[in-house]
Amino acid sequence: MDTILELTLQHIQIVAVAVGLAILTGVPIGIAITQDQRAADTVLYIAAIIITVPSIALFGVMIPILSLIGQGIGYVPAVIAILLYSQLPIIRNTYTAIANVDPALREAARGIGMTPLQRLRQVEIPLAIPVIMAGVRTAVVMNIGVAAIAAYIGAGGLGQLISRGISQTDPRQLVAGALAVSILAIAADFFLLWLQKRLTPRGLSVKRG
Amino acid sequence: MIRLDELTKVFGTPAGDITAADRIDMEVPEGEICVLLGPSGCGKTTTMKMVNRLVEPTSGRIFIDGTDVTKTDPITLRRRIGYVIQQIGLFPNKTVEENICAVPDLLGWDRKKSRSRAAELLELVALDPAVFLKRFPKELSGGQQQRVGVIRALAADPPVMLMDEPFGAIDPINREVIQDEFLRMQSEIKKTIMFVSHDIDEAVKMADRIAIFDSGKLIQYDTPDDLLAHPKNNFIADFVGGDRTLKRLRLITVEEAMMKDPPRVTADDSLSDAVAKMEEHGHQSIIMVGPRGRARGAIRLSDARGQKGRVGEHYSKLPTTVRINEDLRNAVSAMFSADETWLACVDDDGNYKGYITQRGITHILGATYRDQ
Ligand SMILES: Nc1ncnc2c1ncn2[C@@H]1O[C@H](COP(=O)(O)OP(=O)(O)OP(=O)(O)O)[C@@H](O)[C@H]1O
Ligand SMILES: [Mg+2]
Question: Residue B77 is part of a domain; what is its CATH number?
Fold first, then answer.
């Protein structure tokens, strides 16, 4: 039988890979849609719809599709589901943060001769980091729960304890699993908050003095 | 030199076209400050932003030192033009040093060179590099931020600067200080500067030339003194204000308005000599100077006439003097508060250089009107 530790690592791995991929896709999308209001509305609308689909239903939809490549259940659909759920908080926060960069700063950056890429790298992204990281935190905490349900499609993780606890009517496993998922979510939240503070440029957090 | 040639900008808006700049023709000579002045929405910012292509002209052309900027790559162009915006726009994630070095870094300057330049520039605006280089913008006062904003624009030593209400965000007292500081700097660096302002007093103080705009049109382009002395129409006269003649007092120094090589006496001269000198010049009083030529006191004709003795025994103290490098506004103020119709003018060492009278001042202010 898997130890709680192994299951926890499995759980973390699923969420980390999926949210990692979500950052790699969501942040560029969030930045890109700041250029076009209509595209922004459309993308945010679609992302909002995806997040309202219950995870069980999403897994159900993916099984026949992913079966075509022999991955109907298990790790792959779990990662894809979490990747999709993470898009809304990450895209929305990136979009909001970049769009709300003080127009004076954007103008100053443009006026001194920065290219659009230099502007992004040197000014807009550094200023957006705290808000983007807040989106990542939301995505991680929310999807630690989704990953627990993915145990039903054989993705592994702490959800296994819960599902086994239910099927074997073993409250010990059930409670252990539920507790472990909750603690993991809280711990992840703390860790990411710490990381968010670390990544925030120092100039944004200093006090007047 | 910046030259605008029939420069026009029309913004298409849902509510119809707005002509923000309407066939603007003007030239800012090398090394001069040109202040664009006018009521809100008259097109000052738009006109200025066309120079570094933050706004693309609808028609017309802009030349900097003879080169048509509309044919220059905007990124390259902007790195060669210093730019200061009203909101200052320091990058909060960068230190003061990184902010100042922003353009040199974009230009790929050697780090050592740009970093030492940053320290040098901070000293120029009286900020200690040891204290400020590593600070972040949030750790500076408003006035300090504004100074850093200005020297950031100067960092790559651009020949041309655009400044959009650069001192707008600070309180009036600090603004005067920064203005003086900037004028001192400009007297050395001699940049060609376009400077947007909506404050006539700031314009009169900073400008070599003032361009007054109204609804996208350039109405008058003149030196501050000409503008105040000869407003072209009622709009300009209203805009510069009913006290425009008094404003001109700031533009004239005591030295320009005073009577030079005045008669003088020393303590050892006899009163009858003093009387003779006053009568010769038709003066009611005369200044007594010390051995090195410092203004020490005065003798009045009515007190000296028919008296015996030496000047040194009868002189009265001077109520006040005025320095020759001060402007007439200060001189008039000193006259009013001392209730005098004339003042002795001295240099920084107190040497007597001339005198200035109320009549002389009104004469100077009136002169340009009579010329017409
Ligand atoms: N991007 C734009 N789109 C549409 N209209 C614009 C745009 N920028 C400026 N305008 C209009 O052009 C006119 C001139 O604007 P501009 O900003 O040049 O004025 P200004 O003289 O700088 O005024 P202020 O003293 O208030 O800064 C205004 O009527 C303004 O509303
Ligand atoms: Mg403006």
Answer: 3.40.50.300
Q: What is the interface pTM, i.e. ipTM, of the complex?
A: 0.87
Reported as a pLDDT band with limits 50, 70 and 90, residue B133 is very high
The finding on whether B45 has its CB within 6 A of some atom of ligand 1 is yes
Q: Is the pTM of this model over 0.90?
A: no
Considering the domain architecture, whether residues B344 and B219 belong to the same structural domain is answered as no
Could you tell me the residue range of the domain that residue B332 belongs to? 254-368
Residue whose CA is at the smallest distance from ligand 1 atom 25? B40
**Bridge partner list, B222:** B210
Q: Are both B231 and B262 inside the same structural domain?
A: no
B85, B138, B153 member nearest A208 (Cβ) = B138
Give yes or no for residue B21 CB within 6 A of ligand 1.
no
Closest Cβ opposite residue B106 in set A107, A113, A207: A113
Strand-pairing partners, residue A24, are none
End of a domain among B251, B279, B308? B251
List, as one string, the DSSP characters of A72-90. SSSHHHHHHHHHHHHHHHH
Query: Which atom from ligand 1 is nearest to the alpha carbon of B36?
Result: 21
* Tally of domains in chain B: 2
- Note the pLDDT tens digit of each residue in A60-79: 999 999 999 988 888 999 99
- A3 pLDDT band (50/70/90 cuts)? confident
Would you say the CB of residue B198 lies under 6 angstroms from ligand 1?
yes
- A155 assigned to some structural domain: yes
Q: How confident is the model at residue A119 (pLDDT cuts 50, 70, 90)?
A: very high
CB–CB contact B54 A118 (8 Å): no
CA distances from B121 to A182, B109, B133, B195 (A): 56, 16, 11, 20
| Residues contacting B204, CB < 8 A, separation 6+ | B210, B224, B228, B247, B250, B251
A208: confidence class by pLDDT, cuts 50, 70, 90: low
Q: Which of B316, B278, B320 is CA-nearest to residue B297?
A: B316
Tell me the residue range of the domain where A88 lies: 2-202
Name the band, by pLDDT with cuts 50, 70 and 90, for residue A2.
low
Domain co-membership, B300 together with B179 = no
Whether B268 and B184 share a structural domain = no
